Amino acid sequence: MGMLRWGAHLLLLLLLLAAATWTCAGAGAGVTSEYRRKLEATVDMPLDADVFRVPPGYNAPQQVHITLGDQTGTAMTVSWVTANELGSNTVRYGSSPEKLDRAAEGSHTRYDYFNYTSGFIHHCTLTGLTHATKYYYAMGFDHTVRTFSFTTPPKPAPDAPFKFGLIGDLGQTFDSNSTLAHYEANGGDAVLFVGDLSYADNYPLHDNNRWDTWARFVERSVAYQPWIWTAGNHELDYAPELGETVPFKPFTHRYPTPYRAAGSTEPFWYSVKIASAHVIVLASYSAYGKYTPQWTWLQEELATRVDRKLTPWLIVLMHSPWYNSNNYHYMEGETMRVQFERWLVDAKVDVVLAGHVHSYERSRRFANIEYNIVNGKATPAANVDAPVYITIGDGGNIEGIANNFTVPQPAYSAFREASFGHATLEIKNRTHAHYAWHRNHDGAKAVADAVWLTNRYWMPTNDDV
């Protein structure tokens, strides 16, 4: 009889444990992945690596890259460098490599940084383009001509599908090369880049030769599809000890943005409209306090220029994350969050992308807008109008992985992992988008975290489940 009673108690205990486990799972307990990346150190590729190779031919255009030249993709800005002499500023473009029947004339610039002098940096905007059309373009006339191609994004429309690559903190290590190769295999149409490009400032005297190697490294992607640039802390290049007191000098000379078309006064905050997405780029390292130019611009952007009926997906890029449960760069984005979070929740932003922290994390839809420093409501609470916050500062740079997550995992954090990788956001229509994060040390098609997102304007359902 005692044995039966003991068995009944054991069965009851097991049932209670199972129920507790089910309750925790049903409540959506966050996941801290146990996956661990390779143990060897992250190192930059050597200067003689094939990905850094200078293209053959005298004064051949190198470091070719494109970005939107207007807000919607009917213009594309082409940038390149000539190392030997100025050469031609002309870009010819057309519907086939044999029919480059249109031409645009660009401009050039150079800059000095301590003991470095750049090559001739050319920028040329191709205008009058048709949406969703493939174009070929060439530059380097009079010396060595190189030809590339790109496809313009679809015309902004509520159900226009589009696939974004999401990359941050890339650098130029062997892991960076893996990240870029995996992204290329996954086949996005444009990249939303959340800052920290070359990491040249990690070298003595901010060695700007590493800006050149990085641009040659990424040319294989960014010459063929637009990358949307966000300025990170490694773009500051502020070094008064070297006599360099103009912030962002290499970045602004090399990487133009369509900020004027977006009504902005600076190239660090702006917006573009790609297919069914309205993308807002914010600057974590420019002033954003009340009445500053960035504050004023964002207020007007959200109030008057966002049209969810035309571009339903509202995406915000920044470098320093507002929600970060890693001890690296912990709470560095807090002052910007306090300034702008309520605006983003009121606007029903779908996704906020950030970098800076060299690991991966995806949040649930939580907000901390009730806290006003005296009411004690300091814990983020579930909010169906809030964005999903994604930290993708995991591109693979030389500073290594951020593997020091806070314990316990906060309720707002859905998934986190200390690995390198990239993500994709594939917008299907006005209501649904598929998000996936790919860790590097699996095959290129292996997905480590994925979720279907529903649009906050057209279908604000609970997509945390």
TrEMBL record:
Respond yes or no to whether keyword Manganese is given for this record.
no
User: Residue ranges of the Calcineurin-like phosphoesterase domain?
Assistant: 162-360
Q: Which domain of life is it from?
A: Eukaryota
E.C. number, please? 3.1.3.2
Which range is the signal sequence, renumbered to this chain?
A: 1-26
Catalytic class of the enzyme: hydrolase
Q: Which residues form the Purple acid phosphatase C-terminal domain?
A: 386-445
InterPro entries per the record?
A: Calcineurin-like_PHP, Metallo-depent_PP-like, MPP_PAP, PAPs-like, PAPs_C, PAPs_N, Purple_acid_Pase-like_N
Which keywords appear in this protein's UniProt record, sorted alphabetically? Glycoprotein, Hydrolase, Iron, Metal-binding, Signal, Zinc
Return the SUPFAM superfamilies for the record.
Answer: Metallo-dependent phosphatases, Purple acid phosphatase, N-terminal domain
Reaction it catalyzes: a phosphate monoester + H2O = an alcohol + phosphate
Q: Which family does it belong to?
A: Belongs to the metallophosphoesterase superfamily. Purple acid phosphatase family.
Put simply, this protein is called: Purple acid phosphatase
State the species of origin.
Answer: Oryza glaberrima (African rice)
In the record, what lineage is assigned to the organism producing the protein?
Eukaryota, Viridiplantae, Streptophyta, Embryophyta, Tracheophyta
